[in-house]
Amino acid sequence: MKAFWTIKRKLLLFSLCVTLIPLSVITAIYYVSARKEIAHQINHKMIAVAESKKLHIEAFLNEIKTRSLDFSSDGYIRSRLEKSVLEGPLNQDAITDLNKHLKSNKIPLDPDIAAITVLDLTGTVVASTAESVIGEDFSDREEYVNIIDKNRNEVLTYPPHFSEYLDHNVVEVSAPITSMKSGEIIGIIINAYNQEIINRITSNRKGMGDSGEVVVGLIDGDSIKFINTLRYAPDDSFTLKVPLNEEIAKPMKLALEGHTGTIIGPDYRHIDVIAAYNYVSSVGWGLVAKMDKTEAFQPLNTLRNTAII
User: Fold this and answer.
1) How many of the other CB atoms lie within 10 Å of CB of 167?
2) Is 225 exposed, middle or buried (0-12, 13-18, 19+ CB in 10 A)?
3) Nearest-CA neighbor of 291 among 278, 273, 277?
4) How far apart are CA 283 and CA 255, in angstroms?
């Protein structure tokens, strides 16, 4: 009887080996294959999100540049500016008419415009919907320097920054105003857009889970500065700077170098994330769409546990 049970145990052990070893091998192969496919899907999803946000931002930038170009070619604005500047001392009637035109006919066209400002060739504000700056000297500002001093007859967009005369963050677009008679540049128009419009684009985190975030940045010296409100550090959004040589800067650095892809590493909270990076080439901004690694790869953990069971 004892020999019988010994043989029975051996047969049972043999049967288990014959069954479990192939099953284990098959399960391991399935897990590795499925893990690879899920990881590919996660990467593809994050890249798609980054590309979508980039296209959305580019569409917005193109829209505000088109609007600014339209304003700069407005015949009434050109004629009033020419009359007020080129025909002797500043013509107060022409300036009054120009201010009224900006307030009544231009700024209502776009609810996201915070202010419209017109400068003459010296950089003096001759008209503005923000009346407090009329008469001020803007000749030291980028908007003036880049067009008048550098003689660039083109529409230029500037990163979000704090506007002292509007007391909030804005995205500004400047365009040259040319004479209707000679075609020469006679001034500049500056459209200041509420920076919140950038936040509206980046704060839409559909498809990015509970921890998702989109950040936009640019190079400032040897650091990266952010130009949208950070989800996890809203109060530090415009003061936080990340040195380019730090590990947490790597995704944005890759984006600013013109690359596209994904990377896993710490973000500005020093929490590991999967980050998809892209480059907004029209303005030289970098964009990163990211999600906490633990959330992004939760399907892999579920798959692993199922395979073990």
Assistant:
1) 8
2) middle
3) 273
4) 13
